[in-house]
Structures are given as C-alpha cells and as structure tokens.
Amino acid sequence: MNQTLELMLSHRSIRKFTDQKVDERELDIIIRAAQAAATSSFLQAYSIIDVKDPEIRAQLKTLCGDQEYVEKSPIFLVFCGDTHRIKTVCESEKVLQSDQGDSSYESGWTETFIIATVDAAIAGQNAMLAAESLGLGGVYIGGIRNHAQEASKLLKLPEEVYPVFGMCLGYPAQDPEVKQRLPKQIVYHVDQYSEMDEATLEAYDTKISDYYVKRTKGKIKDSWSEAVSKKFVQEKREHMLKFLQDRGFIKR
C-alpha cells in the first residue's frame, strides 16, 4: 500500500461542497493531469469544457435532472468525445496533400466513436484522481445525457462532438463512507469468463442494502441487484442512438 493506492481506494462521490474557491493553479494541474492520460493512437479525441457562466450552469442543472450541485459546485467540467478536431485536421492535410486524393477521415465509424468515448473517460478519471490528490472531491454527472441535444446546443458543440459526462469538483462539505464495490471474484476472471456465484452476489446485496439504510436513514433499502434493475426500467435514454447518429457518429 502507498499514498497513490490509498487515494484510489478511498474514492467517494462528493455532492456537497464548501464555498471555498478552487485556485486556478489547481484547476490547471487537474486539466494537465487529464491531458496526461493514455489516448488511443495519440488521437486525443476529447475536449473538456469548463462551464463558468452562471446562466449556462443553471440551464445545465435543469437538463441534468435538477441536480443542484451541477449549478452550485465550484467547478463544473464537461468531458466530450471529440472527433471534430480530427476531421478538421485530416481535411486540412487533404488541402496540403491534394495529390493523395480524398481526406483520410471518414465520419460515422463505430470504432472512432468508441475511441473518442474511451479517451474522454480515461481523461476524466485522471482529472478526478488529480483533484482528489489536491484535497478536492467530486462526482460524475451522466445526467448530462438526459437531454444531450439541448446540452450540446447550449455548449455550442459542433458536429462530431458529444457530451460523455459532466464532473462537479470542489472542496468537500461531507464525509460519506466509501461504497463497497462488487467482490473481486465477480469481476476478476482468469483465462475465461465465468458466471458469477449467486451466494457471493447475495452476500454483496445484503451489504449494499445495509449501506443504503445507514446512509439514507432507512429511506432507501435497495440491494445492488434491485438498484440495477430499477435503473434499467426507469432510464434507458432511448434518444441517444438518433442523437449520436445526427452528430455524425455510429453510422457504419
């Protein structure tokens, strides 16, 4: 065990923040840490939008499901999958090397979409770890995809850019327990995939139910399995396929 591992294993979602501002130098190192993340083929197929305008924040709060911390957190970043920049560069190279024919870039490939999404996610994880190392806390906001088209318009995202998730950051005003993850034997496989052991899952479900009862003072009693099942009944974001295709993604 070392300081880095302790930091990684102590991650909690923080949704309440003090009024203390995040220094611009701290924000700069967080962004630099995000940029230091691994990136497929060095494409760096992501962009980060730091939303400072209070009016835009207020509208995003509504679009994200009225999550108050989207508006109130000291920092709100939006991590975007971005192949627009790559397309622009390739088209520019076509001009410089016109004897080679058409641009080397073709829109709509599913693999390109996956690359952009993964790049954004890895950059986001680096940013969160950097923030936590500086004494900040934060929470990922997948709710920005609830109204992805409206959020994209608000942020003036061009074609082939889409919001993957938001991230609230600030100094914690709460100290929640670490939420226990699935047992290692459920997610870790050797050589081949193996189905999970039902008894192991049942024991984990009991622990998560106890966690929610304690955290919410009895208002929520769901096990992990119950929470997952409810999630996929209530929230499918059926609009995302058309939205992504309209943005120039996942056409082939």
UniProtKB/TrEMBL annotation:
Residue stretches making up the Nitroreductase domain: 10-171
CDD domains named in the record: NfsA-like (cd02146)
Keywords: Flavoprotein, FMN, NADP, Oxidoreductase
Top-rank taxon, per record: Bacteria
Similarity field: Belongs to the flavin oxidoreductase frp family.
PANTHER family listed in its UniProt record: OXYGEN-INSENSITIVE NADPH NITROREDUCTASE
Protein name: Oxygen-insensitive NADPH nitroreductase
Organism: Fusibacter bizertensis
Gene: nfsA
